[in-house]
Automatic annotation (TrEMBL):
Residues 1-21 form the signal peptide. It comes from Plebeiibacterium sediminum. Residues 50-214 form the SusD-like N-terminal domain. InterPro entries: SusD-like_N, SusD_RagB_dom, TPR-like_helical_dom_sf. This is RagB/SusD family nutrient uptake outer membrane protein. The keyword Lyase does not apply. The keyword Signal applies. One of its GO terms (cellular component) is cell outer membrane. PROSITE patterns: PROKAR_LIPOPROTEIN (PS51257).
Amino acid sequence: MKNIIYTLSVLLLLAFISCNEDSFLEEMPEDNIYANNLFQDYDGFVNSMNAVYSWVREERSRADNIPLTRCTCWDTGVDNAFMNNGHSGMTFLNWPTHIYTDQFIFENMFDWLYRIINSTNMIINRAQKSDVNWMGSNDEENLNKKNYIIAQARLIRAWAYRHLTYCWGDVPLSLDEIDGSNYQNNWTRTPVADIQIQMEKDLVFAKENLPLRDDNPGNVNGAVAIHYLAELYLAMGRNAEAETTARELCEDSEYHLMTERFGSNANVSGVPYMDLFANPLPSQGNKEVLWALLNTEPEAVSYGNEDNNYMKNMWQTYYSKDNTIKKLDLEVFYSNNGGKGAGRSSITAPTFDLYEEQDDRISDFAIKWKLVMPNDQGEMEVVLETNTNHTITDGKYDLDHFQWPSTRKWEYVHPNTSNASSSDQFNCQMYIRLAETYLILAEALYKENKNDEAAIWINKVRERSNATPISGSDIDIDFILDERSRELVTEENRRHTLIRTDKLVERVQKYNDFAGPTIAQAPKYFPIPQKVIDANTGAVMKQNDGY
């Protein structure tokens, strides 16, 4: 099948594949899906949103030629995570001054996010056409279906601009479909404050036109819109609106924290906190998840392939490189220790010290403190206790700590033991959950000097994991950031949070032995890809400071 590509000055890639433009304008083969016949009815718009969701899931898949996830750029190299088993394309995570303007990972991320934006713009634009068959039984149902599609697209557009503004600051704001006829090479960078105003409009529209919970947990919904809108209001300094918005979700009965054991492992030893990750979907009893990333085994996908999730590879330490572990039957070892990982990222040692000893979030159920193997009687025996021993050598890449404790949030054991060493991972995962909304609400209350009430919401999170309750006098912004780390480590977009609270340099210096010494000399934002600047010949696009 021929494909279509529109190469744009800001590297916006059209949603639907690539081929010769003239051929696209002339050919309309019935067996191919092109934009003009895809957007004829409601089903076509649903399929187009499915494509967008597929691209969203790429956040946690491998970024093309580099063995790291795209989200690595904002969840590692921060206060609570460092690069462990390194790669030449990742050194900036531990040495943040090692960033250059044509670095592949930043080009890849920039392209990816603008591809999503242009695709959502296309959906929003095409949904306005009067001849669309929305397949409703009356005008009201047709309007509801139309707004349901537009609201999803606008929410995802806001989601993409959220990443862009936290990673690059001012970026081009594109709200129109780029179809090849409106090519431009004079893009300018729109101030973050102006982009946030558009994000607010998109999120408010989504909040008003999406159900609080969607039948498909992989779709965005009203709860996701509320969550991001509350966070956006914090970033904009509109703390009272952040409180009101977050409270709307936190006090609704549709979602709640999972404080009791549930799901497939409820009858075996464990803790409610970790049941969330083993049972990430509402259909599995999880009433805390707001948005899930769906996945499936590749043989179950009709088109034969599905990008596999890479979170296990990123966060599970490469234990089989250890001199003791490498001598074992590795297929059996992987099957009994959460699968095979490459250990690209690890939790920083000081982060573990933020927990109380009795906190479930640092228990054996949540952190891989012991590596086990079955003995001849089939009983599990400890073969290695993990540790955070490490040294920092100036000028040397002192990495590859193969005994480092791992989070167990992203474990995945292949159902076939003979494939236990596979890097593939096809389980569904939570993307955002209500506990984070509680902490957003607590932050808004703190900023309004309502510390006692903020403590109530923080304690709801802490008490689930048996952490000692706190009082309002214990709360400041660092405590809130500590609690976010305790609850959301490896989940949240941590760099975004630290930039939003203006704590990136301070906390990386305090908690990250690797990136801390040079973070103050590194630019706040990533570089605008040089090829984007070079292609924008009709206007000067200034590079971020420090490059």
